[in-house]
Design goal:
75% of the residues lie in helices and 1% in strands. By secondary structure, it is mainly α. Strands 1-2 form a two-stranded antiparallel sheet.
Length: 345
């Protein structure tokens, strides 16, 4: 297969992930509703794990089939950055010039703060080259990621139980129309489960093919794998988050959108542990480029801005994007320019 066809395949896989991932998210949301979980909890755990499925599969495929730790690490960290960029961009779609972060629940501050803790662990793993290895191909960082993620989930579960009444209803329910999902609520649980599995299979196939097509982008453009993984590959695998979060904001389910994004970022760090297990050629973080630290610092800064925005309850904004959304956008662009500037000449 020529590089040109491979690049076309890259964009085709991205389109498939966007369309199938969006439908997958809708069925996942309905499963969450049938389970009786709260909206913030559905966004944090169920929807986050569903929309992060491409990152998981792309990461494992990158290290197991392509043998590229940079594509895997870049995809995870780049997805975290793009997820926050998506959240900031959705600020433009909130009706009546209301700030997305200003009307979201304070319960999301904990998720964003825990995300920073996990990102710090990633940064330490990259800087130390994962010096404390458990085996020749499994780093101690993977165990740290697993423990921190499980502890974060437990903390969030206990926290959301205490504020469930404030997070189960859309923040703008008085201004928006009922959810227009076409026929999903009329399906039986079995039908929902079957269609959920079908769209999951489509996402799996597209995600497995994506890393090999990304290699063609590397060859044609001459860019480093770390940059391609952080920007192009991460953008493709973040499309389900875009689909479900945009729909949630239009429904007025602000907490579902914010919880989906922040929960996805937590789950993304856990994905690095699975990638490390699948990478048998060495230690994942030790073999990955040190340039990923720039993305780690950028995502920490973007998360800090989101926390600040969540604690500043100024519901109105003067322009299309509020100040916090603009700062997140600037941070993302700055990181992309920095990564591009350190490309070998």
């Amino acid at each position: 297969m020529s590089d040109t066809l491979a690049v076309l395949g890259f964009f085709l896989c991205g389109a498939v992930i966007f369309l199938a991932g969006g439908r997958l998210s809708l069925y996942g949301e309905r499963i969450g509703e049938l389970s009786g979980w709260g909206g913030a909890w559905v966004g944090l755990i169920l929807m986050a794990s569903v929309t992060s499925l491409p990152e998981l599969l792309v990461g494992i495929s990158s290290v197991a089939l392509v043998g590229s730790p940079d594509l895997a690490v870049g995809d995870v960290l780049g997805s975290c950055a793009i997820n926050l960029l998506i959240l900031a961009s959705l600020d433009a779609f909130v009706p009546r010039r209301r700030r997305l972060f200003g009307i979201a629940s304070n319960s999301h501050v904990l998720a964003a703060a825990l995300g920073i803790v996990l990102l710090c662990a990633v940064g330490m793993g990259i800087l130390t080259r994962d010096a404390l290895a458990i085996t020749p191909w499994i780093g101690a960082s993977s165990l740290v990621f697993l423990v921190l993620y499980l502890a974060s989930v437990r903390l969030m579960f206990r926290h959301t139980r205490g504020v469930r009444g404030a997070t189960t209803q859309p923040a703008l329910d008085e201004e928006l129309e009922p959810d227009p999902v076409t026929g999903i609520r009329k399906l039986s649980p079995r039908q929902i489960g079957v269609r959920y599995g079908l769209f999951a299979a489509v996402v799996v196939v597209a995600a497995v093919l994506l890393p090999s097509t990304a290699e063609a982008v590397v060859r044609m453009t001459g860019l480093q794998e770390s940059f391609v993984g952080t920007v192009f590959l991460a953008l493709s695998t973040s499309l389900p988050e875009l689909a479900v979060s945009l729909k949630a904001v239009r429904m007025g389910a602000i907490d579902l959108a914010v919880g989906n994004i922040l929960g996805s970022n937590l789950f993304n760090i856990l994905i690095l542990a699975f990638d490390d297990l699948a990478y048998t050629q060495g230690l994942l973080l030790a073999d990955a480029s040190a340039s990923h630290v720039f993305t780690v610092v950028t995502v920490i800064a973007m998360s800090a801005v989101a926390i600040t925005g969540l604690t500043q309850h100024q519901p109105r904004k003067r322009f299309v994007l509020a100040w916090d959304a603009v700062l997140i956008l600037v941070a993302f662009i700055g990181n992309a320019v920095l990564l591009l500037s350190i490309q070998p000449r």
